């Protein structure tokens, strides 16, 4: 069975508050439970599948920290989503003086685009009524 392609959107990065703000569309592959790193720090990870070429999908890890961990509460594996995130980088020097560099894709907003396995259900509305066939002697006060 051939996988359906996942949309990938690269927007022009915006620099706000010294962070690079970006967005991407794709399919949720995995969502972690909330990870409590310390008493004052918690995070949650989401793996997003996207493919510019559907033959070679890529899996990218994003994270939400602190009060943003609840952004993933209403998202399920297989959902199509649009993630808005900041690209962050930092350096860390170990005891031996070797410097390592790390990147983080920090989610700050997520928009569900629909379920990956089925089309989004249409809202239910009342059936239309033909008002031209209504009797003339109705008892409405207006």
Helix content: under 10%
The top-level CATH class is Mainly Beta
CATH architecture call: Beta Barrel
SS content category: mainly beta
Describe the structure concisely for a colleague.
With 142 residues, this protein is an all-beta fold.
Which helices and strands appear, and what pairs or packs with what?
Elements: E1 14-16, E2 19-31, E3 35-38, E4 41-50, E5 58-65, E6 80-93, E7 99-114
Antiparallel strand pairs: 1-2, 2-4, 2-6, 3-4, 4-5, 6-7
Description:
The radius of gyration is 23 Å and the shape is elongated. The chain is mostly beta strands. Helices cover 0% and strands 48% of the residues. Strand 6 and strand 7 (99-114) form a beta hairpin. Mean pLDDT is 78; it is low at 117-125. Strands 1, 2, 3, 4, 5, 6 and 7 form a seven-stranded antiparallel β-sheet that branches. The protein has one domain: Nucleic acid-binding proteins (OB fold (Dihydrolipoamide Acetyltransferase, E2P), Beta Barrel), CATH 2.40.50. It starts with 13 loop residues before the first strand and ends in a 28-residue tail after the last strand.
